[in-house]
Amino acid sequence: MALHAELVRYLDWCPEERCLLHGDFGFSNALTKVDRLSGILDWGLSLYGDPVYDVARMNFWAEAMPAGHIDWLSAFTEYRHTHNLPPFENLSLRLHCYELYHGLWHARYCALTNQPRGIGWALHKAEAAAVALRAATRSL
Description:
Radius of gyration: 16 Å
Number of strands: 4
Structural class: mainly alpha
Strand content: 5-15%
Strand order of the largest sheet: 1-4
Number of helices: 5
C-alpha cells in the first residue's frame, strides 16, 4: 500500500496530454525490413496516454527480454534529438512513475494468478522505481 500511495504522490509529474499508445510494444510486436521498422502488430492493449508510458513499459521489462537490457530511455531521447523533436518535460520522473505503476500492476497480476516469485520480482522493480523517484525529486 505504501508504494501505491507513493505512486499517487508522483502523478502530478505526469501530463494530461494524450496520444495513441501501443500498450504492449516489444520486439515480438515489431516487423522489420533490413534495418528499418516496417510495421507494428498486436494493438489489442492500445490506449491513449503519455508516450513515455510505452517507453517505461519497455524499460521495465528490458532485463527479462531475451535480447538483454536495452536502455530504452536513451534510445527514445536520441531518437527525439535526431529528428529535432522537443525533449519531454520531466522525462525521467515520468518514466520512473510509470515503471512504479508497471511494477505494482504486475505484482497484482502475479498475486491473482498465484505466482509468488513474480510478486517479489515486480515489487523489487517497483521499489527501484520509487527510489529513483525519491532521489530525483529531492534535487528539485
